[in-house]
Amino acid sequence: MAKDLVFEIGTEEIPAKFMNKTLEQLKENAGIAFKENRINYKSLNTYGTPRRLVLYVKDMEEKQQDLELEIKGPSVKAAYDKDNNPTKALLGFAKGNGLELEDIYIKELSGAEYVYGKKHLIGEKTIEVLKKLLPELLVTITFPKSMKWGNKTFRFARPVRWLMPIFGDELVEFNKDDIICSKYTRGHRVLSQGEIEISKASDYFDKMREAYVIVDQNERRKMIKEQCEEIAKKINGNIIHDSELLEEIIYLVEYPTALLGSFEEDYLNLPREVIITPMKEHQRYFPLENENGKLMNNFIAVRNGDKNYIEIVRKGNERVLRARLSDAKFFYEEDKKVLLDKCVEKLKYVVFQDSLGTIYDKTINIINNSIYLAHELGLDENSVNRLKRAAYLSKADLVTNMVKEFDELQGVMGREYALVQGEDIEVAKAIEEHYMPRNAGDRLPSSIMGAIVGISDRIDTICGCFSIGIQPTGSQDPYALRRQAISIINII
What we know:
The protein is of the alpha+beta class. 42% of the residues lie in helices and 19% in strands. It has a 5-stranded antiparallel β-sheet with strand order 2-3-1-7-8, covered by helices on one side. Strands 11-13-14-12 form a 4-stranded antiparallel β-sheet, sandwiched between helices. A 3-stranded antiparallel β-sheet has the order 4-6-5.
């Protein structure tokens, strides 16, 4: 009779960005382990919340499949003497594999004859195999960053606090560095009190729901989407969708409840990105825009909890965002008072790399590279002059207050300040676009100037690093040279 298996690894909060790949890895490793151990099942899935990784297997057989092995032994010449009597080599082969001499037979392989025997392995009970397999599965999981704690012999993203392996209605007992295996788990940190007993694997999801934990990340994703769409519809707004932000929020909450917040309309006078960046990158809010594509003075936040005291939570979120936007407004107004040419001068005191000089030195290299590429591409004199200006100002915003506080806005603020100070629109556009693509799947520069400055910047970094012996290795690439090389190819 087949039974379900649930294996919950309870932890302190795992970083949200680790979760997707971790769950994929756990699923793949488990599938390989079960196949190698001849354990059949109907389906296998992995689930995760901030405090737990879960392996759930449906209809797993109670016993390993039996196995018949054909075992190759010594050559016939080594197995029998001149009188055709078995030698020590043959007797040792037979004894070592639990074979009788009458079970031995001869087969030809690559023009030579060898002795063979068939060995029948009777499958163990699945629960006995799981006692060895699950602790091994635990330590095969790797993370971008991991840690050791206490006297534990393995590394993990965060300390493991409990293990709950249940096969059918039986506890799979094993000892891994004194981390207790039991039929008890923990619910939502605030909404659930005490430990929760899971008597059998098939009860797991319902019991967790009662404890305010939606274990299935796909269900949480659906809940968040539906709640957010419903809120946006009520105020005739549209959510500015961001799949990466949604994936992160999914793994920040165990019981999602969306709420609508607002801020003063006066902040809408700031550049669009200045408003959106604190919302998304710092507070994990969804921005909203109206039917005309204009930003609204509203946002949607997702709390880890139910609707109780939602007004207090709303006000708290509004207060935090208001402080962020107030800072942004102050930085913006102060930065506009400083000419970008003066910012470029400040780059002389910002080190890019000890052996390669300052950001100002890098700027000069970008200018020279850009001029070379412009001549190779046959740009006219006016275009070359604008290109030189764009290259000269390309890194100026790095020393502005806004970019120091919100480094995600580098390039964006360079464009904004260039336009405020009356620079040519193509120059301003190139300042922003030379950072594109920022990551895989990002937009590419739409202007020739943005493309040239972007290539010139990346070529300078790659050649400079290689010239002083900084080269990517199998596991290390601190200056992202591979990514920069791929970006150059994509731009071309």
